[in-house]
Each structure stands twice: as structure tokens, then as C-alpha cells.
Amino acid sequence: MLLNVVLVLACMEFAKGDVFPSLLKTNATMAVVVDREYLAEFYGNITMEIERYLDYAKREFLRHNGLNTQFFAWPAINLKRDLSILLSITSCLETWKLFAGAETENLLHIAISEQDCARLPPNSAITIPIIERGQETPQLLLDLRTMDIYKWKEIVIMYQDNIPDDLLTRIIKSITRKLAKTTSSGVSLIKLTTKTFEDINYVYSSIRASMLDINPKTIGGNFLVIVNLDLVEKIMEFAKELNLVNTQNQWLYLISNTNNRVFNLKRFKKLLREGDNVSFIYNSTVVNTTCDEGTMVCHIRESLTGVLKALDDAIVEESEMADQVSVEEYEAIRPTKSERKRYLLEKVQKYLTEYGSCNNCTKWKLEAGETWGREYQTPGENSIADIQLVGTWRPSDGPSMTDVLFPHIAHGFRSITLPLVSFHNPPWQILVTNSSGEVIGFQGIVFNIIEELSKNLNFTYSVEVIKNYQAESNNSAFQTYNNESVDFINMAENSYIKTYGVPQIVLDMVHNKSVALGACAFTITEENKRMINFTDPISIQTYTFLSARPRELSRALLFISPFAGDTWFCLATTIISMGPILFYIHKMSPVYEYKGIRVKGGLATIQNCIWYMYGALLQQGGMHLPYADSARIIVGAWWLVVLVIGTTYCGNLVAYLTFPKIEVPITTLQELIDHKDSVSWSYARQSLFEALIKDSTENVYKTIYEKARDISNKRIMIESIKAGKHVYIDWKIKLQYLMKQQFVESDVCNFALGIDEFCEERIGLIVSTDTPYLIKINEEIRKLHQVGLIQKWLEDYLPKRDKCWKKKRSVEVNNHTVNLDDMQGSFFVLLIGFSIAVFVIIVEKMWFKKINKKKNRRVIQPFVT
Ligand SMILES: *[C@@H]1O[C@H](CO)[C@@H](O)[C@H](O)[C@H]1NC(C)=O
Ligand SMILES: *[C@@H]1O[C@H](CO)[C@@H](O)[C@H](O)[C@H]1NC(C)=O
Ligand SMILES: *[C@@H]1O[C@H](CO)[C@@H](O)[C@H](O)[C@H]1NC(C)=O
Ligand SMILES: *[C@@H]1O[C@H](CO)[C@@H](O)[C@H](O)[C@H]1NC(C)=O
Ligand SMILES: *[C@@H]1O[C@H](CO)[C@@H](O)[C@H](O)[C@H]1NC(C)=O
Ligand SMILES: *[C@@H]1O[C@H](CO)[C@@H](O)[C@H](O)[C@H]1NC(C)=O
Ligand SMILES: *[C@@H]1O[C@H](CO)[C@@H](O)[C@H](O)[C@H]1NC(C)=O
Ligand SMILES: *[C@@H]1O[C@H](CO)[C@@H](O)[C@H](O)[C@H]1NC(C)=O
Ligand SMILES: *[C@@H]1O[C@H](CO)[C@@H](O)[C@H](O)[C@H]1NC(C)=O
Ligand SMILES: *[C@@H]1O[C@H](CO)[C@@H](O)[C@H](O)[C@H]1NC(C)=O
Ligand SMILES: *[C@@H]1O[C@H](CO)[C@@H](O)[C@H](O)[C@H]1NC(C)=O
């Protein structure tokens, strides 16, 4: 219980700023600040007027309760809590100071102030600047600026010399003055001389001369043109001629010598081009009826009337509410102070808009050129730019906008439908068709990009499909892909992935502007730039070549691989020469004679010596060893040599056993040419690569071009690549599709891609040459590149990695077991040895037979002694 009371008290304390007695019990209190210093000699009359009018109005409009008023003659007052309305008549500076206090106390603030005063925020106060007739331009520009209707950092003001100097000064001030929220702008001034010339042609040429010097790069591209109506057309023409109305610049024409008999400025629309940023503000002041002057007294009366009527309404509403519920309930639901303030503010604003008559003749209209994408709409009336009313301005309540002043900067293409052209060319453009062949959707990298563009530039699109091109390219892949799994096999088999040969019909359509954008990926080439323009590249494709995967070399001759040929040769020579050397040293040695040892056989023949050396080499030793020291030294040295040779051979052989030798792969174009005797090659026909190498002066490319040999049948070509006899040059991604396809079919990786990547082919979308939107589109593409979306989309459509993608070419062998492949060489040696042995034995046999015959003949002869 106690806690509850404490809570309630705390709540009441908390909401104190909002606690305010009901209007039914107490009179509302209005503070009227009439600044004596600001009004000077008018002070007396104005105060009297207010008092007089209040007496009258209270009687007339405030029938249900009273209103207490407090008068102040100076603005520095303490805004007490029991006030609810503040009427201030003071300078701009003091008005803003008062407003700060009124805002915290939730007062309804009605400020009557001087001209060129930034308005108080329209959702919390009412500002009425007292503007003399014909002096409204500075206030107008200031209002547009404070309401962020144009946001320009730099402004080029072009003005006609009939503007009075003090007005010009005020215009510049209102554009440049530093305000709370908006930053100040830099201003360049260009005076258009018209007064000094009689002849209108001189006037025009002088204007043109002044405009000739303008360089938007240095002074900014935002132009504010303050001229008479009759000059607007000429200036628009000059601006176009001098290329000042390009896509980056914004033009705002302020025309003051018009009146309400000028209904709109649609006559200028023929001067607007696609993509221009041009808007107009013009005087639409009513001239022909009698108008109330916008004097201070008029405004005071009007606003007091509005306030009292609103207050009366509020009282009536509150009493109705109080009648329906009990007193306690009413205390709980009655409006708080800020709610009541909002209610009163809305009522007063509504009253002033509907019934306000002070200065009600002065009115300006704002019109905007609607230019984006108009060219591509259905031809006829619609196809030229339009000029539309986007808002009005009145001195009493400022600008009221129905749309933005520069619609395309805020809203891009404003949801219009742009026609595009496309054809089936996966993975760039994929037309999804249903079973009866109707195109029902669009996919692919290009359409992913288009989708993103349409979101950011605010347009929708309709696609014109070129069907003949599919037939031409023999593309039967015109079939349904479901969203998730794009069929890579079909893509490689059927698709052309062709971007180089632009179909003429697409070029024509883009060139003639019957479509806004070619939604197809094309190779960016100089010769096509004559008819169309390309966007920034969406992708860069490189060429490489497809060759057979390098295989292991045969291991039959593994046992000779540890030594190179010359080593083997030296070794053989050494063995053969060492035999005779040993023989002669052995023979010449006098040791045997001295010791009287004379042995037949052994090292006494040259053959035995060679045989011995050979045996020693294979570490077999020999039966006979020399006895002489000289010969022993030779043999000893030989044993050392044998040790070195043997160890080296064994070690190397193990290494060769462990790491099988791989064929030297072809990795660069130069290597391809070096192998031209064993390998032929071909490249994608009608591609950028062909065009480039045709005119190339580089030897490598020249050779590739001249010596290429096409294999027309694709199957045969693939077989011959697999066999290592052919190499095919094409886009890397196309070759990847091919590899994937072969892998899926055979589950073996038979192909390898070259390491060399050459001939970068840049792929872009196409637009017409003079389109103003290229910069915008490029900007969006750059953004997509930066966040990596395009790369991701491309990867989505590429074949996924598999084991054939391994960059490393050598087969990794971790634990190789020696098998017959490795050992076959030694068996061959054995076989050869055996064959030779058989041959030799036959020869020996025959030799023996022959000798025997001779012997026998000799035996038969009569033995004579
Ligand atoms: C004040 O009002 C009186 C009568 O309404 C008028 O004669 C006088 O000129 C006014 N004074 C000023 C300074 O306007
Ligand atoms: C409220 O105003 C009426 C008429 O103006 C007056 O008669 C009455 O005394 C006022 N009441 C208070 C509490 O000030
Ligand atoms: C606007 O037009 C009215 C009527 O023609 C004219 O009196 C007034 O001076 C014009 N405003 C400006 C700023 O020129
Ligand atoms: C209009 O001006 C803005 C800002 O200066 C610019 O970004 C835009 O591209 C221009 N309009 C067109 C159609 O380019
Ligand atoms: C004045 O306005 C009325 C209608 O508002 C029109 O009929 C009349 O022709 C106008 N007079 C002139 C001189 O424009
Ligand atoms: C201005 O207000 C007066 C008085 O209410 C009215 O007679 C007149 O028609 C209004 N003028 C315009 C242009 O609305
Ligand atoms: C697109 O244009 C429409 C029509 O002007 C507009 O209402 C909408 O706000 C714009 N959308 C965006 C995101 O700018
Ligand atoms: C294919 O789409 C077209 C157009 O949407 C439709 O008329 C046709 O009936 C569809 N065919 C099938 C088999 O769904
Ligand atoms: C399309 O294929 C047919 C037969 O398959 C062939 O005769 C024709 O030359 C091909 N056309 C093109 C443009 O490749
Ligand atoms: C193509 O666009 C570039 C800007 O991206 C422009 O510099 C070039 O002049 C354009 N080419 C033609 C022929 O319009
Ligand atoms: C060694 O070979 C066996 C049988 O081929 C294999 O299972 C094992 O993974 C291999 N070890 C290494 C480290 O490669």
C-alpha cells in the first residue's frame, strides 16, 4: 500500500513537465511578446491593435471559457510553466531564442518575424515572416534550403542584371548563411548582361560568352539561374550546346516575372533530354483580383483568430470527453500538455491554410523535369520528357511539396519499365523456359546484376528475347534448369558461351534505342564501340589451353636412370681400359722373375684382367690377385673407385624408385611451340583470341595462328587431346566445363590446364553510345565488384572443384612398394644375358664341330715318320 503511494507520487513528480490543469477548470494563458526595440515607433499601435482585436475575438470565437493574456515588451522573458501559448513579434534571432524555451515548455509558439528568417520547425511552431511584395525570392530560396529540397554544396548563380543589388545580396545571404542543420554552400556568381544592349542578338551572344567560361569541374555543377521568362529558352539552348546540361549537373531556373496566367512551363519540355536534371520555380502570383496586403496587422489578426478558434475547439472536445466518464477517469485520460499543443498546432495550421487571406495572392510554383527513361517508353506523346508540378510556395506557410524537386536524384527511374534485350547464353544469361518453350524467367550472372541495378536505380524491366540467335548457334540448351542445380554437363555440351560475336540485331536494337540496355555479356572491343558503348567489365576471362594430363614415364629402364649417359660411357671405357693397364703392369713387373714364380693363367691374359676388373666392379672379387706391389696399387685404387660408384648408384636408384618420373608437361605457349613436332593444336574459332593472334606481330602468336590444325569432330579432338597429341586453346571456364564433363563421364582425370593464362577478354553489358545512365550503371557495377557479389555469382555457375583441379601435377607417392614395373628392367637384362649366352653357346658348339672335323681329317691322313 505504502509502496503504491510512493510509486504514484514518483510518477507524478516524473511527469511534471506534462502536468497541466484541465482547460475546463482553468483558463489557458497566452504570453504576447511584442518587442519594443524591434517595432520601434509601431510598438504602440501594434500593442493597441492586439489588445483591441483580442477583446473582439474572445467574445466572437472563444465562447466556452476564457483566455488570460500576459504582455511583455521585451523578448528575454522567463517562460513559466503555467503558460500554454506564445505569440511573439520580434527579430529573427530573438524568435529562435524564444523558440528554444517554448519547445521545452511545450508551448504553442506563433512567431511573427522579419523576412529572410529561417522558419521554425513546422512540426512544432508556426512562423510568419512579414514579406514585402516582390521581395519574396530570398525567403523562398532559404525555405527550400532549410527544408533540404535542394542540397547543394556549391552553387553557380547566374543572374540577370535587372535584379536590384540589395535583393541579390539577400539572395546570396540566404543561400550561404550558416544555419543550425544545413552546412553553408560555396557560391560562384555569373552576371548576364542584358540591359546595355538594344539588339536582342547582342544580348544572346553576350550571355553565351559569359557561359562559355563556365567549367563545372572547378565551380561545381549546380546552377541556379535567376532570369526573366523570355531568356530561359535561350539559356537552356546554350547550356545544352556548351554541354553544361550533362548528367552530373543540376539546373534550377528561378523565374520571377511571371504570374498566375502562366499555367505551366510545359513548353520547355522539348529542350529536355534524357537524363537531364532540370527544375523550375516560377512566380504564380495572382494579379487580377484584389488581394489582401500581407501587413503585420493582418497576420496578427489572422493568427489570433486561428488560435482562439482552435482553443475553443479544444475546450469543447475536452468537455465532451469529461461528460462521458467519471472525474477520476477523466483525470487519467485527458490530454497532456504536449498532446494539447500538437492538437492546437494542427488546428491553427489548418485554419491558416484554408482561410488565411493575408498575402494570399503571392504564390510560387515548383516544377520538375521528368526525364529518365522516357525515351524507352512506348513511342508517341509520352516519349519526350515531361514537366510536372511538384509543389507550391506561399509566404505564410512556406513550401508544400507533393513530390521532390529533383525526382531522379531521389528516386532513380521512378519505377518505370525499361525494355532490355537478351538471348540465351549460359552462364551469363539463362532464359528459363517451361515445357512448352515459353520463357518464364531469367537467370545467370547478367540477370543477377540487372536485378541488383533495378533495385538500386528503381526500375522494372521487360526482356525482349532474341530467339533466332539460339538457332544460329545450334544451341539446344533451351531447356529448364531448376533453380538450385544448373546442369553443367548440358552447359558444356550445348552452350556456346559466346560473347565475342555480337548478333547484329542486338547491336541495332541498342543503337536505335529501342531498348535501354543489352542484358547480355559481350566482349569489349574497340570496333563495336563505334555503334554502342560498353559498361565497365563485369568479368575478365582469360584463355588457356587444355592438354593431356602428364603421365608417369615407363619404368623399364629405371635401372639405368641413376646415371646419365656420359657417366655410363665413362664407366664402360674405364672398365675396358683398366683391364689392359692391369695386364701390362702385371706383366712388366719383375717380381715374378725375381721370386721365380711363373704362373700360367690368372692375370697373365688380357681377357682375364678385364674380367677381373668387371668382377671387382660388381664386388665379386677374383680368384687371382696380383703379387706385385705396383699391380696391387692399381687394384686397390680400382676398389676405391668401385666403392664410390656403387654407393652412388644404389642411393640414386632408391630415390628413383620412390619418386616416379613424370612427363614434362606443356605449361606455356612457348613450350607448346617447342613441341610442335609431336603435338598439334587448335583454338576457339571466331573468338577474341583468334582476332588478336591474327594481327599479332609476336612470334609465338604468329606461330600459333599459322600452324593451328582444327579437328572438326569434337569427340575425336577430345580423344586426341587425351592421347597427348593435341592441345586446345579456349576460355579457361569453358575448358573447366569440358574437364568436368569428361570427369563425370569417365571418372578419370585425363586433362590438365596450362599454367599460362593469356589474352584477357573483358566482358561487359552494352548500352547506346550517348546514354546518360552509363555513369550510374558503372557506379553500381563497381559497388557489386567491391562487395564481391559478381565473383560469387560467377563461382556459383562454375563447375565445383573436384580432384582434377589439383594444381600440383606430380603424382604424390608417400609409400611406394616396389612392384614389377620397377623391377622389369633387371629381368630384361637377365633375358638379354640369357639370349646372348644361348647364342654364344651355339657359336661355340659350331666352332668346336668345325675344329673337330679338321682334326679328324688330320687323323685320317697316313702318319709318316
Ligand atoms: C498609429 O495609428 C494611428 C491611427 O490608427 C495612425 O494615425 C498613426 O500614423 C499610426 N502610427 C504609426 C507609427 O503607424
Ligand atoms: C477565465 O476567463 C473568463 C473570461 O475571460 C473570466 O471571467 C474568468 O475570471 C477567468 N477565470 C480565471 C480563473 O482566470
Ligand atoms: C511576382 O509576380 C507579381 C505579379 O506579377 C509581382 O508583383 C511580384 O513582384 C513578382 N515577384 C517577384 C519576386 O518578382
Ligand atoms: C543529376 O544530378 C545528380 C547529382 O548531381 C547526379 O548524381 C545524377 O546522375 C544526375 N542525373 C542523371 C540522369 O545522371
Ligand atoms: C481577371 O480574372 C477573371 C477571372 O478570374 C478573368 O475572367 C479576367 O479575364 C481577368 N482579367 C484580366 C485582365 O486578365
Ligand atoms: C484572398 O483572400 C480574400 C479574402 O478571403 C479572397 O477574397 C480572395 O479571393 C483570396 N485570393 C486568392 C487568390 O485566393
Ligand atoms: C521508386 O520510384 C517510386 C515512384 O516515383 C517512388 O515512389 C519510390 O519511393 C522509389 N523507390 C525508391 C527505393 O527510391
Ligand atoms: C508455359 O508458359 C506459358 C506462358 O506463361 C503458358 O501459356 C503455357 O501454358 C506454359 N506451358 C506449360 C506447359 O506450362
Ligand atoms: C548446326 O548444326 C547443324 C547440324 O548439326 C550443322 O549443319 C550446322 O552447320 C550448325 N550450325 C551452326 C551455326 O553451327
Ligand atoms: C562510352 O562511355 C565512356 C564513359 O564510360 C565515354 O567516355 C565514351 O565517350 C563513350 N563512348 C561513346 C562513343 O559515347
Ligand atoms: C600407404 O599405402 C596404403 C596402401 O596403398 C594406404 O592405405 C596408405 O594410406 C598409404 N599411406 C600413406 C601415408 O599414404
From TrEMBL:
Does this entry carry the keyword Signal? yes
Transmembrane ranges, per UniProt, are: 556-585, 633-659, 827-848
| Biological processes per GO annotation | detection of stimulus involved in sensory perception
Q: How does it sit in the membrane?
A: Multi-pass membrane protein
User: Key word Transmembrane helix present in the record?
Assistant: yes
Give the signal sequence positions. Answer: 1-17
**Which InterPro entries does UniProt cross-reference here?**
Insect_Ionotropic_Sensory_Rcpt, Iontro_rcpt_C
Q: Where in the cell is it found?
A: Cell membrane
Where does the Ionotropic glutamate receptor C-terminal domain start and stop, copy by copy? 566-834
UniProt keywords (A-Z) are: Cell membrane, Glycoprotein, Membrane, Receptor, Signal, Transmembrane, Transmembrane helix
Q: Which Pfam families match?
A: Lig_chan
Where it mainly occurs, coarsely classed, is membrane
Q: Which GO terms describe its cellular component?
A: plasma membrane
Family affiliation = Belongs to the glutamate-gated ion channel (TC 1.A.10.1) family.
| UniProt name for this protein | Ionotropic glutamate receptor C-terminal domain-containing protein
Q: Which species does this protein come from?
A: Hypothenemus hampei (Coffee berry borer)
